[in-house]
Amino acid sequence: MVTSGPGARPRARRRRSWLGLAFVAPALLVFIVFLGVPLAQSLWYSLWHWDGFSTATWAGLSNYTALLHDDGLRTSFGHAGVLVIFYAVLPVTIALGLTAILSRSIRLRGVGVFRTLLFLPQVIASVVVASTWVAIYSPNGLVNQLLRAVGLGSFARAWLGDFTFALPAIGFIGTWLGIGLCLVLFLSGVSSIDTEVFEAARLDGAGIFTEFRAITLPALRGQIVVALTLTVIGAIKTFDLVYVTTRGGPGGSTTVPAYEAYSKAFQQREVGQAAAIAVVLTALILLVSVVINRFNPKDDG
Amino acid sequence: MKISRLEAGFNYAVLSLFTISALLPLVGVVLSALTPRAEATGGLAIPSSLAWSNFKAAWAEGHFTVYMRSSVIVTVAVVALTVALASAAGYGFARLDFPGSTPLFFLLLIGLMLPAEAFIIPLYYNLRGMGLTNTYWGLIAPQVAQSLAFGTFWMRNNFKQFPTSIIEAARLDGASEWRLMWQVALPALRPAVLTMCLLLGMWTWNEFLIPLVMVTDESLRTAPLGMAFFQGRRSTDYALLAAGGMIVAAPVVIAYAFAQKHFVRGMLGGASR
Amino acid sequence: MKAVHLSRVLAVGVVGALGLTACAPGSGSSKPAASSSSAVSKDVAGAGDVTLTVWDVNVEGSGNDTQEALNKAFTDKYPNVTIKRVARTFADIKTTLGLALDSADAPDVVQANQGYPDMGTFVSGNLLRPLNDYSTLYGWDTTFPAGQLAINTFSSDGKTWQKGNLYGVSQTGEIVGVYYNKKLLDQAGATVPTTLPELEAAMAKVKAAGILPLSFGNSEGWPGIHEFGVVQSATAGADAVKGLVTGSGGKWTDDATVAAATTLQSWASNGYLTPDSGGVAPDAARDAFTKGQAAFYISGTWNAAPVAEALGTDAGFTVLSPKGTTTPTSTGGIGLAWAMSTASKHPDVAAAYIDWVTNADAELAMLKSGNLAAVVPSGYTPTPGVQADVVDYWNKVNAADSLTPYLDYTTTTFYDTITSNVQELVAQRITPQAFTQALQADADKFAAGK
Fold it and tell me: Does B231 contact A134 at a Cβ distance shorter than 8 Å?
């Protein structure tokens, strides 16, 4: 027990100080045992060659250099980059464009209904979403139906089995999900802008572009940061969609790091290599979070 | 602000267009699920007759009695445990001063950004060593740990915003910190706790990777996991798959229908697990 | 939500990670050594109340019904035994069996895929129990042909296939061959092929008649192994393919294998295969054939029952012979091995069950339900049509020892390598040469690591 200290803080406060730890300890313990320790172990595992059964042999950094040399692994990270465009860049851009159009009518009656419906796909399990899109992309699915209906039947194909189009097809599922999320996010941001600002701008003769650039965009900075954080991370760690739709195929045209980590760890039994992929994937996600959040206007601790 | 009728009409049109495109795939699922099995080709078509029996068939052939029960058990357990642990921890961080509080809080916050891939490989071997793979605890414990980062952060913020005067008054009355948290602060924060429960419930219900790795036993498979294997088994039976998908999605969608404000508010705050 | 200095969060994380000390992964694990030292017995009734967990792949139609009946008969005979059956598709088993065997409550009896990726890995991980003692006890070593036993045999370190301990026995026989629709062949004026050139000629006629020649759905990758295997067996012959798969001779880049790749690729460019086969589900390809939408369908004899059921005597089954021979030669072997986990607490009961589902009565039941038994009891008269063809060819390939192993047995990573490369080959994204080089590279890497 500490019996003396600088200043004259009341005793009661000091007594409570250890009580606080008691409140926090159970949560911390669970967190450390089931998440913190395994996280550190991932780093450790990544330095070994291990098949999951026998004693491991030291690998040094070779599991990491393999990420640079192995075409398959390198490609999987490239695919994650492509998915960022589909999951994050496209939805944010499209949703911003829509927001520019809609920004002045945010108090339209019934916007709440649109918001509820637009947001609905966000709450549906990704496995179910994937299963839905497998049907949409199937030879007689919605996409090919539409193509045939407009006389473009020659473009119809089995989208998820096509080397060129399978990855964009998966990406488009992310775009579909992302637009709803971003639009709802931005519309809620716009609704907090004082309408008089828009009115004043209009009286000054500002067009829709000026209005967007000068008023809407700056006001939405926080929302854009949140949207980018969620969608970019979602793209980089894509797993469920790939697992259900293509399992990385055809060929290796839709492999992504998270799927490779899973498949190496639990199917091919290259546990060390899998851990290295997981570590790099995690580092990438943390890095992206840090970089994106630098633009957060409210990021002041 | 007044906008012209023309502009309002145009805006409604744009909103409707995007809402329809957001809903079209889901409408397709509902239609497929009601299409007689022999007719369903995976495309968008109005069924010739409504085959409600698809749901019964999907439920039986997809083994959803077992899968849904697992999902309910795991989801309820994860939410209950996380609420208890995160409330205590959130109160500790927000209202009690103790040595190491700041670094420990930051330690927890790392969890907000971690993908499951970051820890699942060693975790699998650890849990296997403890004999916890292929048990409900193997599904529950990792997901509680994963939920604690958001849960603690959320509860800490809410406890911080709780009026200090009320806490101080109760303290002067001699209430213990434990009672302050459970009987004074938490009841007043019911809406925030509800939001957290709904979000955690949704994430847990929808989780795929952890059950995929941690359980192989049929009786422990959760609904999304069962759905993925059902998809593999009946890859071209589009009507049955659509019905199965609706069964798996239904609990969360129903919760969303009744409490959509909680979901939207929580997720727009940037919450993710 | 993210209103926190992330860099500080990261700093804490790094400090936490540095505080870590550990030893080599796996060094602490101590698995019981696989020993079959204790005396083995046929006694089941005296084993007390036993629950046997069994994983099998007989999920479909008649195979499922037969398996259920066999299980019921077993528990009727031994009321002290309860069978907890887990029926899973091949793809499902492929994903989960390793994890399941590796857990504390592993199933007692499992159907394991042969070859290095599955059985070899499980053996090296000490997850399967050697069954030599039970083989002697139940006489499996004499019931089953030596070639079949060899496929289920591995060295105890899992590194050498077809040598060492027996790890399972199989219930069904399998030939991957060419199903055909007689009606459609007649319509196109084509005849039943018995060689590769004849098959190509028939497909050309069928195509000219406006019918899809070969129904192929390869979205899951494994049908590609069968498609390519059938062609390669016909171009290279049984001995060459066996040499490649067992690593005992030859190279994947040899002319005959390049020719096989060239042939398969030309089928795609000639429009003989289902378009966009890489995106067509295997089930969908089978459905197309059984609905009369294609003249040919390459698949295993496990599809004999559904094909016969849908097309009756319109359907037939043929196996191609290599150039200049009349020896039907094709990919095939035996169904997944019924094996026992090291973790099983009731090896005597598990062995009795394995014997039960693979003995002569079980084989007869499998045949009667339209499936192909590993050992066809002498004197059995098959149903005319597909099954008669299948049993006839099964006897021929066994007599001539001309079955070639599944190509994915080759190395631990070969399944992934060949499935993705066949998809690339069929999509015209790689040349036949590059295809064979990719396969050889995988074989080289495996040989170097042994």
Answer: yes
Q: Tell me the C-alpha distance between C168 and C154, whole Å.
A: 10
Chain C positions touching A298 (Cβ under 8 A) are 3
Chain A hits for B182, CB-CB cut-off 8 Å, are none
Q: What phi and psi, each to the nearest 5 degrees, are found at residue C54? A: -125, 130
Chain C CB contacts of A272 below 8 Å = 25
Minimal CA separation from A79 to chain B, in Å: 17
In chain B, domain spans: 5-51, 66-235+249-268
Q: Structural domains in chain A? A: 17-58 (no CATH), 71-293 (1.10.3720.10)
pLDDT in tens, C241-286: 999 998 888 999 999 999 999 999 999 999 999 988 988 889 889 9
pLDDT averaged over 10-residue windows placed end to end, chain C, 450 residues: 45 45 57 57 90 90 89 95 89 81 87 89 91 95 89 91 93 94 96 96 96 94 95 96 92 96 97 90 91 96 91 94 93 92 94 95 89 87 90 91 91 89 93 97 88
Distance of CA A158 to the CA centre of its chain: 27
C13 in Cβ contact with B111 (< 8 Å): no
Domains and CATH numbers, chain C: 46-167+336-373 (3.40.190.10), 175-332+403-449 (3.40.190.10)
Looking at residue C115, what DSSP letter applies? S
- Pick one of 1.10.3720.10, 1.10.3660.10, 3.40.630.30, 2.115.10.20 as the CATH number of B66-235+249-268: 1.10.3720.10
Collapse the DSSP code of A191 into the 3-class scheme (helix H, G, I; strand E, B; otherwise coil) and give the result. Answer: coil
E strand segments, A11-136: 48-49, 57-58
C-contacting residues of A 123-162, CB under 8 Å?
A: 137-139, 157-162
> How far away is chain B from the Cα of C24, in angstroms, using its nearest Cα?
12
CA dist., res. A262 & res. C424, Å (int): 23
